[in-house]
Amino acid sequence: MTAEKSVEKKHEAFGFRALLAVAMPLAATVGCFSITLFTDRTLLMWYGPTSSAASVSAGNLYWAVVCIPVTAMGFITPLVAMTLGRSRRRGAVTRRAWSLVWQCIWLTLACVPLLVLVGWLSPRIFEAFGHEPNLAGEEARYFRTLLLVAPASMLEAGLTAFFIGRRITRPILRTNIASAVVNVILDVWLIFGGLGLPAMGVLGAALATAIAMWMKACVFAVLLFRVRSFGRHFAEAWRPNLDVIREIVLPGSALGVQQLIRSSLFSFVLLVIGAASVTGLAATSAALSLYQLLSIPAIGLATAVTVVTGQGFAAGGSGLAGMAVRRGLVIGAVGVVLMSVLLVGFPHQLLRIPLGGLEAAQRVVIEPIAVTLLGYAAVYGFVDVASLLMGAAVKGIGKTSIILVATAVPGVLSVTLGYALAPDGEAAVTHWWTVLVVWAAAQSAIVGGGVVQLFGFRSVVAANRGRTVDDRDQEQPPPHAVRRDRIEVR
Predict the structure, then answer these.
(1) Averaged confidence pLDDT in the chain
(2) Of 200, 149, 273, nearest to 43 (Cα)?
(3) By residue range, what is the domain housing residue 341?
(4) 488 assigned to some structural domain
C-alpha cells in the first residue's frame, strides 16, 4: 500500500462518514432513552402537573447522586477506543478490553452499599427545600425507586463500552429499542393502572424505568458472554486489577465530579424554581423534555466524537484527532440550527405533545410560560451543544480535568450570582433560564480554549518536529485492522 493511499484510508476512518456511521446508531440509542424519559414526563403531566414536576426535580437529584460512579464507568469507552488505536497484538488488545469490563462489574458491586444508605436518608432532602407536602412526597417516592436503577446504569455504561469503543453499535441499538418499548408499555400500565393494578403515578414511572434498565443490563451481559474471546481471556481478565481500576476511576471520577457539580447546580435551580412557582416548574419540565428530545442527535454525535477522536489520537496524534473534532463540530452546527428553528418556529405545535393531556384550564396557564422557555432553550442549545462536542473530544484523549474546571468555575459563579439577584414568583423562572444560558456559554468558551491548546498547538509542534501523518502511519496499523476481533458469537 502506498503512503498516499494509506493516509487517505486513515482520513476516511476519521472523517465525516466515520463519525456519522458511529453517531447515527448511537443517536438512535440515546433517542430510545430520551423517548422513555419524555414518555415518563408526558404521561406524568397527563396524570397531574404535580407528578410531572416531581419527576423533574427528583430525577435530577437522582442523577446528582449516581453521576460519579455511572460517569466513571462511561470512561471505559474512550479507554477501549484508545486501546484499539495503539499498535498492539490482537490478543493483548482483547485481553485489555475484557479487563476493563470486569473492573466495571467489581466497581458496581462496591457502590451498592452506598446507594442503600442514600435511599434510607432520602426522604429528608425534599422536605428541607420547603416544597409543598404533596410535591415532596411524590418526589421522595420517585427518587427512592429510581435508586434501584443505579447499579443497572453502571453496568450498562461499562458493558456497552466493549462495543462502542470498537465502533460496534448495532447490538446496543437493538437492545435499547427493546428496552424502550418495554418501558413505554409499563409506563402506561403502572402510571394509570389497569389489569388489576391501581394507578401508581410517579412510583409506577420509576418502577417501569427500573424493570426496563435491568432487562437491558442483563441482555448486554448475555451478549458479552456469547463473544468467543470471553472464555479465552476469562482467566486473565476477571480478577480485580488496581492498576486498571485507577485508569478508570481517576479520569472517570473527574468527569463524575463534573457531572455532580453540574447536576447539583442544575437540581438546585429546579428546586428553587419549584419553590417559587409550581406552574413555572411544570413549564420548565415541558420545555426541557422537548429540548432533550430534539438534542438526541447531538448526544449520539458526542459519543462518536469521543470514540473517533480517541482512536485517532492513539493512532496518529493530534493531526487525526483534530480532524475528527473539526468535522464533528461542523455536523453539530448543522444540527443545532435545525433544532433552534423548530423550537422558535413551532413552539405551540411542539407543546401539544407534553401538554396535550392536560385540562384546558391547566394548559392555558402553563403553555405561555413554556413557549417563552422554548426560546431560551434555542439559545441554550447553541452553547450547550458546542460545549458537549468539544468536551467529548477532550474526553476522548483522557484530559478530563479541563471539563471539570469549565463546568465548576462558571457554574458556581453563575448560580451564586443568580441566587443573590433572583426575583420572587414566576419572574424567577425566566431569570434562572438566563443563568443557565450564561453558564453554558462560559463553559463552552473554556472548553474551546482547551481544545485549541490540545489539538491546534500540538499539531504545530508535531509538524515542527518533522513528524507527519505519513511517518506515524508506518508505526501504527489503521483502526479497522484491530477491529477484526469483533463479536465472534458462538
Answers:
(1) 78
(2) 200
(3) 3-480
(4) no
